[in-house]
Amino acid sequence: MFTKSFIWIRNNRNWLILNIIFFIIIGVFYTVHGITPIKHYFVEKTQNEYDFYMPIYDGVVLVQPFECNVDGIDTIELPISASDWNYDGDFTVSIANEDQSYVQTWDLPKSDLSERSGWIQLNLNNPLKKENTYDIVIQAQNLEKNNAIEIRMTGAQDSINKDNNISFNDCIYASPLDGYVAVAFCKSYPNFFVITSLIVLFLLLNVCWFFRKEKIEKYAIIVVGTIGVVVLLMISPGAVNDDDYHYYSSLMLSNIIMGRSNVTEIENEYIYQLNNDNNANENYCLLLDKGLDFTGIDNTNGAIVVGTRAVGSALNPQVYPIGHLIPALGLTIGRLLSLNFIQAYTLARVFVLITYLFACYYTLKILPLKKELAVLVMINPMLLQQVTSFSYDAIIIILSMLYVAIIIHIALNKVVIKWVDIFKLVFLISLFGPIKTVYYVHILLFFVLNKECFKNLRDRWVKTVTFIISVIAINRIISKMYTIVTVSTSTLELNTNIISANNSISVVHSLQQYYSAGYVLHNPFETMIIVLNTIEKNLISYIEGMFGIKMAVSSSIPEYLVIGLIIITVLAAYMKTEDETVYLNTSARYIIILTVLVESLLIICAGFLMTTYGEKVLTGVQGRYFLPCLMPLIAIPFNKGSIPKITGQKYIAMASFIYIGYIFNIGII
Predict the structure, then answer these.
(1) Nearest CA among 427, 428, 364 for reference residue 397
(2) 24 CB burial (10 A radius; 0-12, 13-18, 19+)
(3) C-beta of residue 85 within 8 angstroms of C-beta of residue 185
């Protein structure tokens, strides 16, 4: 028996080592970060104008009576701090029953308190029972008045309790006190999203091992789709930049698809319900509470309201439908099935991811080289964040990826480009170019096609000119024929913007003046200085931003994880590939580099429109804006055998290890 076990271990040692490393990395991150539970707050943590502080020391006992009107409360959070940190000591918090017997007691050192506005968390061994009355008792018998702890109080019950989950009675502090402890009550859930993400990642690692002898393109979609699900799970609803704006833009397009006469009218049920203040915990709770509720919704008697954000923003008007078409289709299906808000919202995100997977499949099928590198680009965490969201960046990434793959395929195979290929390229760039005009620079990639891709010089001129003119013509047609905003009333005010019934958008300006296109054109020297200052200051942050150093709006990923992902990608770029017998010629690679540089420079220059006049460094530009520049770059590096081959599976495994760190850091909510 021992011999058989030894032989099995020896034959599978690499597989065992891979999984052991995976669990060791999880153990390290768990030790450092832990997995923060998801908390459903019945009374939330608050701070407001009614707050004041009461000292607790020897001889002073504070009692806060309350009635519990819900089941399941297993965590209490108290705003306790200290007036003087130079003295240590202990204090006691207890929960007492109506008969004054203690449910649970915590003896806590004063050193646990970190700051005046800090909160301490108390976990109950047994949840509080509904319709029972309890007392919170706080005392500090070995503290003096000059080194007392302090409890934050509020003078208005409404400020800490708005839905009667907890009913407070007057606090007792030596005598009845006109005030209440600003206590928070919640029910804790395991962080299913982090845990499930880690399980999915573990399964992916073993799938890659199972396919280790196969070419990566045979199972690449499994890899991309699995990590896409991981990103979908670990990034909470509402956590992507401008999520409510993109949601309402998609919802308006959904209204058009459904034939609604007024695209800005939406049902109460589909008003954006997520917390946009980076509160992932609250949004995860909404997903848990409503995501599995399939009782359906009744809109027959629901009030119809105008979504106040549904008409967009004059600083960023949505005048092109394709950018939100895919999530709009998901929302439409969700609404037709009478799904609730969170279900329809999630379905729309899944729709975008599925569309991205189809694009990845055809891109890898078309792409003649560097498929391993392409897969690493496809599982870039920031890129996946965008293609699991409502952002129009998703459709730009999807369509530009196909556009680049077709051009590289034709250029490397040196086949004569057909008219059908011209129309494919025109179609693709005409769809993603108008979303953000700067990406029209992808037109330059057409010149990667050398003379061998055309019958003769005349054929080259005719097809090139036809391509460029067709793109320009379609752009003009689209800009004239489409506008998404229609308003039934004569005017609708939105912040500082007015959108009128004739669909024109005017901006009532004024708090800040931004750089204009006119300034850039008339002051080339000053413009150049500002751009150079911006590149010097922000180049590293732009590169790190492309690889997700700032994900889910508020999550800061440690720099070592981002650098690790960049190193893995660069290694894959110069990896020796057995079937790589052709590569782009020097002039084609220079054209790609020029295209990426010009597009990147224009993306940076777009920051002028988001920067206050007078600033010397441009603001508003983020690393994710450069994501469409990644795919063209995969055709630049080539290897003639100086670097030994590392299989694509090993790169996927290394990227999976990096993803463990991303999951733990985003999961801190």
Answers:
(1) 428
(2) exposed
(3) no
Nearest to 423 by CA among 458, 357, 461, 474: 474
CB 558 within 8 A of CB 639: no
CATH 2.60.120.380: which residues of the chain?
39-189
The tokens describing 77, both together, are: 């959070």
CA-based R_g, the chain, Å: 29
Mean pLDDT, the chain, as a whole number?
82
User: Do 558 and 665 touch, CB atoms closer than 8 A?
Assistant: yes
Q: Among residues 218, 216, 205, 162, which one has the least CA distance to residue 185?
A: 162
Helix axes 280-290, 341-366, angle to 10 degrees: 100
DSSP of 240-266: STTHHHHHHHHHHHHHHHTT-S-TTEE
Write the burial class of residue 101 (CB in 10 Å: 0-12 exposed, 13-18 middle, 19+ buried).
Answer: exposed
Strands (E), 502-627: 505-507, 550-551, 555-556
Contact 568, 376 (CB under 8 A): yes
DSSP H or E segment with residue 402: helix 393-413
- pTM to 2 decimal places: 0.86
Please write the tens of the pLDDT for every residue from 533-567.
999 999 999 999 999 888 887 778 899 999 999 99
> H or E stretch including 397?
helix 393-413
Backbone angles phi, psi at 76, to 5 degrees: -120, 135
Rounded CA separation 530/441 (Å): 22
Structure-token pair, residue 636: 């630049």
CATH 2.60.120.380 fits 39-189, yes or no: yes
